[in-house]
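sorry to bug you again but im stuck and you know this stuff better than me. theres a chain ive been looking at and ive put its sequence and its fold in token form underneath. id like you to explain what the token line says about the fold, in plain words if possible. anything you notice is useful, everything is just below.
___
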Amino acid sequence: QDLMYRPVSLSCGHTVCKTCLENLYQKSRPPVKCPSCRKEIGTADEGLNVNVALNILLNKIQIKCTNEGCSWKGENRQKQDHITSCSYHQVTCYDGCGFSGIRSIMEEHAKSCPSKKEKCQFCREEISRRDLEEHEQQCDEKPRGCPYECGALIPRSHFHLHLMKCKNRMVRCQVKGCFKVMPQKEEEQHANEYTITHQKLLADEVQMLKQDMWQK
């Protein structure tokens, strides 16, 4: 049986672990009673003072680790520090998958734990292994190749914006009557080469508008 940890003396004369007593206050309805004699022991805010003299004596008692396979021995005051690092202490998976075992096998378990989080290669958000593949397929930052073959890799979240601005996107000349279709990057060159043609088309358009106005 474990020795008391931070012993507290109650008004009834009995002594209990401070941690155990704190748990008792949390789980019990008032009035809280001594676990030994069942007398009422007051409320938590009346003070849970550690019995200093008894605590010193208990801390000096030599104990050994109760975890199977562990050979550690030391003073009772060293117990809590040892438990936090004991390779044979029973622990549950740090990533919350529910697996439990001794601490020494947890490192090996972590290599395949489905709940362990890894960073998405695109957005760098931490996702559990079981959901990572699906997340990366739908990730807004996953790059896609431009369908206009400009060579750019665009995150899904910026894909439509890129398509509108891509220099390889095929566009039609904006001058009415000119039916030239070209990559967007050639618009300026086309405008320079067909300046006279465009001017004539625009003049014809203006003339047609004037005729329509006169007819009305």
Summary: Helices lie at 18-27, 52-60, 79-83, 106-110, 129-138, 159-165, 187-193, 195-215. The CA atoms of residues 173 and 180 lie 6 Å apart. The chain has eight helices and twelve strands.
